[in-house]
Amino acid sequence: MAVIPVALAGRAYEVVIAEGLFSRLVDAAAPFLRGYGPGRGVPFVADTNTHRLFAGGIDAHLAAHGLAAEWFVVEPGEDAKTWGVLEKLCDWLLALGVTRKDHVFAIGGGVVGDLVGFACSVVKRGVCFVQLPTTLLAQVDSSVGGKTAINTRAGKNLIGAFHQPALVLIDPLVLASLPDREMRAGYAEVLKYGLLGDAAFFAWLEANGHKVLAREPAALEHAIATSIAMKARIVAADERETEDLRALLNLGHTFGHALEAETGFSDRLLHGEAVALGMVLAAKYSARRGEISREDAARAEAAIAAAGLPARTADLGLGCDGAALARHMRHDKKAEGTTLPFLLLCALGEAYVARDVELADIAAFLDGELAG
Q1: Which terminus of the chain is less hemmed in, N or C, by CB atoms within 10 Å?
Q2: In which band, very low, low, confident or very high, does the pLDDT at 333 lie, cut at 50, 70 and 90?
Q3: By the 8 A CB rule, do 20 and 173 touch?
Q4: Would you state the torsion angle of the CA atoms of residues 98, 103, 104, 108, taken in this order, to the nearest 10 degrees?
Q5: Distance (Å, rounded) from C-alpha 353 to C-alpha 231?
Q6: Active-site position among 157, 192, 250, 260
Q7: What is the pLDDT of residue 286?
Q8: What share of the chain is helix, strand, coil (3-state, %, to 5)?
Q9: Can you name the CATH fold of 188-371?
Q10: Is residue 189 annotated as part of the catalytic site, yes or no?
Q11: Active-site annotation holder among 51, 103, 156, 257
Q12: How far apart are CA 301 and CA 305, in angstroms?
């Protein structure tokens, strides 16, 4: 078991990691269930897959303690992060009479966490929520830190708010039901923490990543706890990304979001897969600029490929040129004219924000990667 504090001024909360947390939810979240009881159900939000897997057990567990759940169920995938679904969720919470002292429970992956967090940020100017992440990606990344958002036609996560959860409960046992592809996609974010700020952790993952992907308990808990501890330190120091520190968490994401946009934010390329390939591109582009050696770039690429993640842009068969991918980047929240801050590497385990990157040079670089 691990308990990691996210030490925000006046709004600190804990991330609890322990096997079996979902089976003892009432005890684990007792302070956050006050106000619920006979005639007043606990609001849970899930997608259809998560609801099918976990609703029965949660309903039975709550019933044994004199509680009941009210469920709002969305379709899986990025299509749930829309204005229309947000409106329905907000109306549902208001109809339940949720107050600012209540807690809404988000159970699922990053999509559900983003949607619920944003809804809670605007309903009655701020309702509390608890994160119950069920994917590795959500456990090590999106459930911690308070970034919430929905998508629009202009791009991904462009409408949102910073709204921190009151508690994050991580049960590694729930990953047993996670498809291998989703597990690998989440592992990309674990690798990210090693590449951006912990060379020793990256080396540990090179040697032990197969154990994490095999869901071996000790390796899995170590990987989750190490990742969250790093994110907690970064979020505590730069909650709203007003400095460059929190921006480091976006390593691989600028390239990755462009790849996601080109593939229609679809199952053709999962978010974690896009981030993995984005990190390969960031490493190669860093080597192109002379920031790291080509050998270090190759080492990053090898670690990603060894996990079964996409490591070659040409293999996607996108049918576009580098300029098309660079155009997607112009919608990035951080874009400034013809330049865009890029997360690059000055060493394996040390990322930095480069503010002198011209999108025209990125387009030329990507032309070479698309050609293989």
Answers
A1: C
A2: low
A3: yes
A4: 180
A5: 17
A6: 250
A7: 98
A8: 55, 20, 30
A9: Dehydroquinate synthase-like, alpha domain (1.20.1090)
A10: yes
A11: 257
A12: 6
**Could you give the 3-state DSSP secondary structure of residue 141?**
helix
Select which of 103, 231, 299, 328 is catalytic: 231
Given the residues 51, 163, 222, 271, select the one marked as catalytic: 271
Q: Dmax of the chain from CA atoms? A: 65
Is residue 291 part of the annotated active site? The answer reads no
Q: Check if 70 is active-site.
A: no
The DSSP code for 336 is B
Classified as helix, coil or strand, 149 is strand
C-alpha to C-alpha distance for 349 and 112, rounded to whole angstroms: 31
Residues 108, 273, 341, CA angle at the centre, nearest 5°?
100
Q: Which entry of 222, 246, 284, 328 is annotated as an active-site residue?
A: 246
Average pLDDT estimate for 341-367: 96
Pairing mode, strands 13-17 and 167-170? parallel
**What does the domain layout of the chain look like in residue ranges?**
2-177, 188-371
The single residue of 221, 241, 260, 291 carrying the catalytic annotation is 241
Asked if 61 is an active-site residue, the reply is: no
Predicted confidence (pLDDT) per residue in 179-225, tens digit: 999 999 999 999 999 999 999 999 999 999 999 999 999 999 999 99
49 is catalytic: no
The two three-digit tokens of residue 55, written as one number: 């609703």
271 as an active site residue: the answer is yes
Identical topology for domains 2-177 and 188-371 = no
- Cα–Cα distance, 84 to 275 (Å, whole number): 27
Q: Is 231 a catalytic residue?
A: yes
Spatial CA neighbour of 201 closest among 214, 215, 187: 187
Q: At a CB cut-off of 8 Å and minimum separation 6, what does 14 contact?
A: 3, 4, 5, 6, 167, 168
**Residue 246 in tokens:** 């929190």
Among 70, 111, 60, 108, which Cα is nearest to 92's? 70
Establish whether 101 is a catalytic residue: no
Question: What phi and psi, each to the nearest 5 degrees, are found at residue 170?
Answer: -115, 120
Bridge partners of 229, per DSSP, are none
Q: What is the pLDDT of residues 143-154, one digit of tens each?
A: 999 999 999 988
Catalytic residue, chosen from 253, 284, 299, 328, is 253
Q: Are strands 128-133 and 167-170 parallel, antiparallel or unpaired?
A: parallel
**CATH number for the domain whose boundaries are 2-177:** 3.40.50.1970
